[in-house]
Amino acid sequence: MDGQISESTVKEKTKCQSLSHNNVRDLVDSVDAFLFDCDGVIWKGDSLIDGVPETLETLRSMGKKLVFVTNNSRKSRSQYAKKFRSLGISVTVDEIFSSSFAAAMYLKVNDFPKDKKVYVIGEEGILEELELAGFTGLGGPEDGKKTALLRPNSFFQHDKSVGAVVVGLDQYINFYKLQYGTLCIRENPGCLFIATNQDSVGHLTDLQEWPGAGCMVAAMCGSTQKEPIVVGKPSTFMMDFLLKRFNIPTSRMCMVGDRLDTDILFGLNAGCRTLLVLSGVTSISTLEDLSNHIQPEYYSSQVSDIPQLLSAATL
Amino acid sequence: MDGQISESTVKEKTKCQSLSHNNVRDLVDSVDAFLFDCDGVIWKGDSLIDGVPETLETLRSMGKKLVFVTNNSRKSRSQYAKKFRSLGISVTVDEIFSSSFAAAMYLKVNDFPKDKKVYVIGEEGILEELELAGFTGLGGPEDGKKTALLRPNSFFQHDKSVGAVVVGLDQYINFYKLQYGTLCIRENPGCLFIATNQDSVGHLTDLQEWPGAGCMVAAMCGSTQKEPIVVGKPSTFMMDFLLKRFNIPTSRMCMVGDRLDTDILFGLNAGCRTLLVLSGVTSISTLEDLSNHIQPEYYSSQVSDIPQLLSAATL
């Protein structure tokens, strides 16, 4: 019995390998596209992580397709492209898949009626993507200035033509928005409840973590007693969309991320190769903890290990 | 097989009886204390429900002990006593058990250190009860005016001496409070996470329902990935406290409420008699719906049915 246990433990351990000069070439050669998470992989808050430009350049020069997949819904794709440029990296809008874009695309592929409105508990990025997709968004930062006070005989009005509530990270969250979204979901027949993602916390500034969209989404689950449709990682909605657009089989994609429960799970759910980087929220001890059942194929300290190990492998 | 099914269905149905002149005397005679929920039973928003003063007077004249148990944490016990008085009902502070008081009592009976602070996501009632119990509260409505903006290099400071976060209904909920409470629970060793209650919505104004404490509590569960200690209904913490104070066995108490998942469950959990009134959030169709598994012993349209049926029984 003991022998069996230790054998299976060894097997478990060999499943997740440290990226090294022995295996990096195999990984890179067997992959046509690299999907990068952004926060904790490309940048941390507003600081670029070391060696990112060289890494992306190396992979591009090898003919690899690059896609940047982020659960952060605060920005639209064009706002993310601007952020990449400000950090000295040239990325096109088409290479970016943010959960704000995913929310708009979910409505589009599901033929959401153009005469219905979308109430947004979230920031500018969601509103911008909705508009680009031809939908009418309400709420967002604007409603962060409004108040809903509990006064006798006051009646809170909401728009009966709202057919979907999209909830993402919202630093302007307030009781007004919570009541607005709750009324739409509870009272407008067939109103959709869409979550950009459910990350509990995120490295939204350089120095610390903050409540993520999972906080606002949970609040709405608490008041409506309903579960949302999730369009960001680890849901495979974005992956299905990517597949159609690039026509690359998921087995020839590698998901690179810093989170086990979103990035790596997303990659595993979709049948991708997976690489965990330790430059974000996950530590080696969390990865190796017995309570963790999400095992990436490879792990490494940061993305710049890829070109460095490739050089070492060539020597 | 068919016969067995219909027999068990009949049994299920006879379990919950409509209060009538045939059974009201049995119920009242077998009970020493009536525990009343407030919202939807005594009042709706700021309007008294018909016949309440006469009902309470009748029961008092029969020597029954009356206790008012509310999950609404916005007010302290003395603020509730004032509300009762403004509605023309005389109730003492000792007869009121609000979830704001329960939160303070939970800390007291568990010897929460006086040199530790309590961060409050909630309103004045919680802060007042904490102070009366000798604890130092932070946050509350005051922090509703503060903002936490996601700026590069800004660092959100929190008090390391916070040993408990109490979360209740909060119409001034914002990102600042969510980050403050999340940091305390995630970073202060041993910090307690206490929920006054988890009601999804509540009739906070006369005309409509609003997100309840369950919304704010869920938000904190979402960001901390922890489950709270619940002190309000249906947790029996308040009941254990009541038992010690009044020395009346729960089998001789009757819980009267308008909610199945808090009031009636609370009564059933504690071994009380139970009476559901239909003057609040629960309709007869919800009660009789097959998906509902919480069955009170009796139901009636409103509390004033008690004296009316008693009179009819005497005739």
From TrEMBL, chains A, B:
Divalent metal ions. Mg(2+) is the most effective. Photorespiratory enzyme that dephosphorylates the 2-phosphoglycolate produced by the RuBisCO oxygenation reaction. The keyword Ribonucleoprotein does not apply. Substrate binds at K233. It is found in: Plastid, Chloroplast. The active site is at D37 (nucleophile), D39 (proton donor). GO terms for cellular component: chloroplast. Its cofactor is Mg(2+). This is Phosphoglycolate phosphatase. Keywords: Acetylation, Chloroplast, Hydrolase, Magnesium, Metal-binding, Phosphoprotein, Photorespiration, Plastid, Transit peptide. Its EC number is 3.1.3.18. It catalyses: 2-phosphoglycolate + H2O = glycolate + phosphate. PANTHER family: 4-NITROPHENYLPHOSPHATASE-RELATED, PHOSPHOGLYCOLATE PHOSPHATASE 2. Belongs to the HAD-like hydrolase superfamily. CbbY/CbbZ/Gph/YieH family. GO terms for biological process: photorespiration. It comes from the Eukaryota. Its main location: plastid.
